[in-house]
Every structure is written in C-alpha cells, then in structure tokens.
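>> received
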Amino acid sequence: MASNLRLLYLTLLLMATTTIVSSFTIPKGDAVQEVKQALEGQIAAWNKGDLETAMGFYWNSPEMLWISKGGTEKGYQEVYDMFLQDFTDRSKMGVYSYEPLHIEQVSREAVFFVFRWKIELDGKRLMGGVSSQVWKKLNGRWVVTSEHAS
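>> returned
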C-alpha cells in the first residue's frame, strides 16, 4: 500500500512539474523564419536604393530606438531623417550584406537577431559591424523596435 501511494505521489509530482515547466516554454512557430524573411526584404529594398521601403521594416513609432557608436536616437522619424541626410544620393547606398550570428525567439511575438553586416560601394567597404535587433510582431507584421549597430 505504501509503495502504491509513493508511486501515485511521484506520478502526480511529475505531472505537476511537467505542467509548470511547459507553461514557461516559448511555443515554436514560424517567428524566426518570418523575421529572417523580413530582414531579407529590408536588405533587398536597401540594395535597390529604396530607402522608404527599407525603413518600412522599422517600427513607425516615437518609441523606436536606434543605438550606434554616435549615441542613441529615439523615434522612427528621427532615424529616418538621419538616413535621408546620410544617403541623399541613393546611388551611394551601396550593397548591403549580412551573416547571421544568433537568432532566438524570446516570446510569442518577439525575436532577437544578431548579425554581422557590411555595406560596400564599388568594391570598397563603406561601413559595417555587428547589429542586434529586437523584432516584434505588431499589428500582424514583424518590425524592428530597437537596433544596436556597431
């Protein structure tokens, strides 16, 4: 009898533990693939010299955060204006390429993506480094809500 109670107790404990642990597990979905595709879309737009479409992958909000060696900018419009100033001549945007370093789904609607990037023009490197982006699914689309580019 004691052995049956112990077995029942262990079974119930295992079931409770499994339920608790599974409630903290992030569901596996297509989020990582969708974010990879979104970044590819952003890069394709950049490489066509289409800054407006490339910027469309950022969160159009005053809360969007951009961090670089020059400091921080807050707000979509501020970042967009910075890019417009830096790339008044679209032919100077160059060719953007990247290498994924780390990507993980951190919640149902958030993905953290780290990659090495560079922009080249006429075979010469204009700029590059490592970026970390937080992508969130807002209103049914994946957008960058913050980026640290170094």
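>> Helices lie at 2-23, 31-47, 51-55, 76-86.
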